[in-house]
Amino acid sequence: MKLLLKNAQIVNVFTDRLETANVLIDDKKIIGVGGYDDSDADKVRDLSGKIICPGFIDGHIHIESTMLTPSELTKVCLLCGTTAIVADPHEIANVCGLSGIAYMLEASENLPMSVYIMLPSCVPSTGFDETGAVLEAENLAVLYNHPRVLGLGEMMNYPGVLAEDPQVMQKISKAHEFGKLVNGHAPLLGGKGLDKYIAAGISDDHECSTEEEAMERISKGQHIMIRQGTAAKNLDALLPLFDEPWSRRCMLVTDDRHPADLISEGHIDNIIRRAVKAGKSPLTAIRMATLQAAEYFGMNGVGAVAPGYTADILVLDDLETVKVCDVYCRGQLAVSDGKVIDFKKPEIRSDIRKTVRNSFYLDELSPEDFHIEPEGERCHVIKIRPGQLLTDESITEINFDRNNGVDTKRDILKLAVIERHLNTGHKGIGFISGIGLKKGAIASSVSHDAHNLIVIGTNDDDMAAAANRIRTMGGGNAVVYEGKIIAEMPLPEAGLMSDLTAAEVASQNEEVRMAVHKLGASAEIEPFMNMAFLSLPVIPSLKMTTLGLVDVNSQRLVPLFEK
Amino acid sequence: MKLLLKNAQIVNVFTDRLETANVLIDDKKIIGVGGYDDSDADKVRDLSGKIICPGFIDGHIHIESTMLTPSELTKVCLLCGTTAIVADPHEIANVCGLSGIAYMLEASENLPMSVYIMLPSCVPSTGFDETGAVLEAENLAVLYNHPRVLGLGEMMNYPGVLAEDPQVMQKISKAHEFGKLVNGHAPLLGGKGLDKYIAAGISDDHECSTEEEAMERISKGQHIMIRQGTAAKNLDALLPLFDEPWSRRCMLVTDDRHPADLISEGHIDNIIRRAVKAGKSPLTAIRMATLQAAEYFGMNGVGAVAPGYTADILVLDDLETVKVCDVYCRGQLAVSDGKVIDFKKPEIRSDIRKTVRNSFYLDELSPEDFHIEPEGERCHVIKIRPGQLLTDESITEINFDRNNGVDTKRDILKLAVIERHLNTGHKGIGFISGIGLKKGAIASSVSHDAHNLIVIGTNDDDMAAAANRIRTMGGGNAVVYEGKIIAEMPLPEAGLMSDLTAAEVASQNEEVRMAVHKLGASAEIEPFMNMAFLSLPVIPSLKMTTLGLVDVNSQRLVPLFEK
């Protein structure tokens, strides 16, 4: 069936111009743009006064961070005009290994948004991470021939690249062998170190927080992904990149964005809107969000409204609000007048589904499991910095006579990270300051990057109750007070994602957040987000893993008690 | 061995800026650009006052048109700063088929200039061409995995694309299956026809002669090759493409350039120089001639002076004259102070060499072979247009009583095209006007695209002598007067290329040219070049093939005598 979209103004991403022309589409492809008329088509839509542009592309996203399944995320993204994302299933791979990647591929097959996959490069992130799987170069290699696998995901292990670690270099060279690209992640790296990192064949970066950093990278050949997520917001600092010559080497990404933000603010459309509001050209911003991402990633025939291109097309109200009315994905109407058109959810093979839905392998816990046997009076305590993922370390006097060392008056709470993939019984227990809970406990299966069970509490009973609730839910977030669950959010898909809609997830998330604040959590922090990063031993300075405390700067285990 | 090039200004093709920095090279690759110093290197060159830029890339060239072997062409190109060419061995493939392509690949292996190959898409060009080989999609497919084969060469058969000819579409889809691109060639095609041609997956064009034509193509997603050859010179008309946004989708090519021009004017450097003289930015022109060609063709790590890139580097005097002092190719000095450093010529397998050097299969010819048996008094005569490849047709009264119809006073000469690949005895003989020879005859093995033996003369004896000389030389150009060879140029490689140096070829070419003019050839024409296109039945309007006269517009054979 031939469809004619007529009388709209078309954003030409090859020329940065608006053209008035008609677009003729046949099935999935654009036949042409120009003097086509009603007689060429089976169906005609008059779009007078509207703008047509290519569908937006998110060049770097972790689906797991949205807590939504690919299907549910697709609905939110489509409403924002996103017709393609490049996802790194890094979190689920730490939990379920190759089955996790297979899940992401299957759960995103034939969606009305194209989901491309970058293979996670750092599973686990360090030797301290007890993950559900370890992925080496040869494990990943089998997947490069998948038509939606575009390369190797963010190579966070930049010290490994600089040291020419054979395992790391093998992962990179394997991707190159298959003609695939390698995403970067090396915040603040510059000069000769950056040269070496780039020369290894790592061709982009999404961690730039200053224009100087981004411009050095562009000058050295990298492509820059301007990131605006829920926590990491780099757009304002990187606005100068929307000007020439920089814009030619940039694209737009969200990396990690929560469902509430996706619903209220938007997705890539939100970044474009903000850039336009800051005075940047909408035509440039749209080019960055479409053609440039597509060409960088080698997505053939995607990213433009032009002959032979896939008909991923947006109908916008105007170029100021970037309000998305209709979305065509592969020639099919996917959003009509601001409403997503129902689509069939992909089937997932039962074995894969079973692995992902049963990712917890952990015996029931008792309050005694959270008990700390005193071996001294002074402990290494993790201190949270509000609004940051960085933590500090303090040596603090702990009085074990009362409540096994917890002291809510001084904001000294207990923190535990419990291995949950292989039921090894490994656990790290210690103290944390800065969360501010006055009572109860919270627990979660989201704890980067290994996603073990993490618990913070004011007493061992509530900690055990919260932890066991996560266990019985098969993953999620829980808030407990006096043994009772007062709020919870199940994340049954690998302990990372919900099976509910974006609106439901956003609402549950808010309930859980409010419940923690009711227990006294400091208004300055996002308790579950801060907690989720307390286990990541690549962000300084003191973190808790299943093996115990880790001093990130020296990459050494630290005993709880001062010696 | 680590080499430091210091104190030069570096053309940054990512930012269109000049940077003062030092470049550190290790073996074939660039380690980095920046604050490297003597202590980082084993060898240091001070390039104060000089400019460093990436090596130039010719995105579309026919090596055969230079009449030089790949080795000899490399020497001339290197002196001009060209470190990579994309060659379509279209002419030799018409003569020797896959062996011809194999010859080009072998003869260009490991040269100090990178020679990439596009597989000829139209062998033969039409059904009227009796060629040495017919290449179908499956014949070509075996070559796509060669690391230097980048795609399918110029798809001249655009009527075949528009008619969705299955053979043509199969050639295109086979290239795409291998992830390769398809070069275009569809002069003056626009509108819906162009949309269809582009939508078939043909992503560039080098035949644009007006800015409007080029801009339409860019707007529709094609990349434009701005061509400046010996005969076809499009630069002046396309100068507006050196401005934004157009320049981003353009590269520079020569297509067909003769050795004398390469020596006296240059190669890609000449195009840059001319553009700069016309007021265009040298930084833009260099970007078009380097990074943009490399990225378009997917040449990984080529086209920039940046970390991890192949060290194809030029040292220029300045950005106005674009004078090339030194050339590094893959980190090795290839030109030093304007002189090519000797290199080893590639070995060619003896069977391939034998096929190419023995491409003539034709019995000796006698004057009788050129006799026309009168069947009437009025003939269809080809009329040459000076300075053009287009020909006209006239119905002319021929008096067969004298000299079998040749009448030098009226400039009616005899023209013959004789099949020479399979010794079929097929020949087309007729009359030609516009060459102006008053005596003698000329013959050549260069006659597009089938490269049969072509002869023009004032009498049958000289025509036979000239033709036989081409035959005994195994290819070339010859000028005969009263039975004697008065000038000749052997082209023993497939009847298309010399085995001499560029200077020798240029000088022979000039001798032959002068000799024809001495025989009376019109000063307005280039006799051998005009003659070479008299056999190409895709350029209107009347042409001569081994099957006889062809009316190009109707694509029909035409009898010599008016009926």
Task: Please give a handful of descriptors for the protein shown.
7-stranded mixed sheet, 8-stranded mixed sheet, homodimer
Describe the structure.
- Helix content of chain A is 26%, strand content 26%.
- The first copy, chain A, contains 16 helices and 30 strands.
- In chain A, the strands form six sheets. Chain A has an eight-stranded mixed sheet.
- In chain A, strand 20 and strand 21 form a beta hairpin.
- The longest helix of chain A is centred in the first third of the chain and has 18 residues, at 90-107.
- Chain A starts with a strand and ends in a 5-residue tail after the last strand.
- The model of chain A has no long low-confidence stretch (mean pLDDT 97).
- The A-B interface holds A 12, 14-17, 19, 29-36, 179, 191-192, 194-196, 198-201, 215, 218-221, 244-246, 248-249, 301, 304, 306-309 and B 12, 14-17, 19, 29-36, 179, 191-192, 194-196, 198-201, 215, 218-221, 244-246, 248-249, 301, 304, 306-309.
Q: What general form of chain A does the structure show?
A: globular
Low-confidence stretches of chain A: none
Please tally the helical runs of chain A, counting DSSP H or I stretches of 4 or more residues.
16
Tell me, rounded to a whole number, the average pLDDT of chain A: 97
Estimate the strand proportion of chain A. 25-35%
The gyration radius over C-alpha positions of chain A equals 24 Å
The main β sheet of chain A shows up as: 8 strands, mixed
Seen as an oligomer or otherwise, the chain set is homodimer
Biggest interface: A-B, 40 and 40 residues
Q: Name the strands of the widest sheet of chain A in spatial order.
A: 21-20-23-22-25-24-26-27
Work out the number of β strands of chain A. 30
Helix content of chain A: 25-40%
Structural class estimated from helices and strands of chain A: alpha/beta
Query: How many angstroms does the end-to-end distance of chain A come to?
Result: 77 Å
